[in-house]
Amino acid sequence: MDRKPLISILVSASLFGISTPLAKVLVEDIPPVALAGLLYLGSFAGLSLYSLGRRKGKLDPEGRARLERKDLPWLAGSTVSGGVLAPITLLTGLALISGFSASLLLNLEGLATALIAVLLFKEGTGKRLWGALAFMTAAGVFMAWDPGLNRFSVVGHLLVVAAMVCWGMDNNLTFRISGKDPVQIAMVKSLVAGSISLSIACLLGMRMSLGPTVAHALLLGAFSYGASLVFFIKALEGLGSSRTGAFFSVAPFIGAVSSIVILREWIGWLMFPAAASMLIGVWLIVGERHSHIHLHEAVTHAHSHDNRDMHHLHKHPKPYPAPHGHEHDHPEVAHEHDHWPDAHHRHGHKP
After folding, report:
1. Phi, psi (degrees; rounded to nearest 5) at 83
2. Which of 191, 198, 157 is nearest to 75 (CA)?
3. Closest by alpha carbon to 281, among 314, 239, 258, 252?
4. pLDDT band at 242, cuts 50/70/90?
5. Banded pLDDT at 223 (limits 50, 70, 90)
6. Residue 25 has pLDDT above 60, yes or no
7. Among residues of the chain, what percentage have pLDDT more than 90?
8. Predicted pLDDT at 254
9. 111, 43 Cβ separation under 8 angstroms
10. Of the candidates 19, 142, 174, which has an alpha carbon nearest to the alpha carbon of residue 87?
């Protein structure tokens, strides 16, 4: 199996994981709705610089297909759910609970992604995935205890859970266009989401002073939201929604460790069973093997590919670099090999 999607999702998780404790510091000076807008506008600014360099140089040799009109419904849905609703509810909840607890509760994004993928979009899954999600969710529950209050913080935690559901829907909608240029997708989502959130903040009369705090928010957005989103979309194409969500569950652990260092937060012995549960969940996913005879129905679509694998043997009127992106046909074929439910493996499974 191609391990590039695994590397992409781990980079994405690391960048996003450190954002929670850093955002916890910023939310003390910037209202949550305004901060959500700044983070995504920072994401747009960083991606714009990257895109400019990509056009002038060769920062992206993958030749990704561009967005089309038919992609707009998926993009609009993912922007509203993941770019507007999710960050606002997360940052509002973050203001009420510790950064340590909020970081580990991000585990529930993987569970929400998998449940939506299986229940609404009929994505195949297996026992190892559900076992991994169970262990990762258990880790999040362990970390939800707030030692300062000596109880669970219900409102704050419910807001974070709601954010995870929104991002779970976002992941599944984005998967439908994950074969297109991830930088273009991330730029559009960031600009629209950032503009909407800041507009809402202005309409609600929220004020913030221009200064270093705003600059820090924009910088955090460029890396933890912009760059992270690009790597996440790349992983979606190769792993599918449910497995990408499960792998992304290492982000909460990274956020929790960062909280210890940055915020000096600690919840005692509960950290150890949480860490063990997280590691077991990752091991279950990484060790998954899935191989059987399966049928690929005839389909026409566009995504980045080369002509050296068993799914892309079509001819071109002129030589193309590898990889490259364009609309192409897949004839019907039946064969067997290791695979995940990626962009080419959307078949059903017998019980």
Report:
1. -100, -25
2. 191
3. 252
4. low
5. very high
6. yes
7. 26
8. 87
9. no
10. 19
| Chain segment 163-207, per-residue pLDDT in tens | 999 999 998 898 888 778 888 888 999 999 999 999 999 999 887
Domain boundaries, the chain: 4-291, 293-338
Residue whose token pair is 């005879």: 293
Question: Looking at residue 106, what is its pLDDT?
Answer: 81
N-term to C-term CA, the chain? 24
Structure tokens at 210: 């221009």
* CA distances, 87 to each of 19, 147, 215, 294 (Å): 11, 25, 18, 39
Quick check: 238 and 2 in contact, CB under 8 A?
A: yes
CB atoms within 10 A of CB 306: 13
In 3D space, the residue among 198, 179, 215 whose CA is nearest the CA of residue 66 turns out to be 179
Q: Is there a contact between 113 and 242 (Cβ–Cβ < 8 Å)?
A: yes
Apex CA 278: angle with CA 14 and CA 260, to 5°?
A: 60
Peptide bond into 323 cis (omega under 30): yes
Task: Reduce the DSSP state of residue 14 to 3 states and report it.
Answer: helix
Q: Tokens standing for 46?
A: 């960083």
Helix (H) or strand (E) holding 31: none
At residue 58, the pLDDT reads 46
CB contact at 8 A, 324 and 345: no
pLDDT at 323: 54
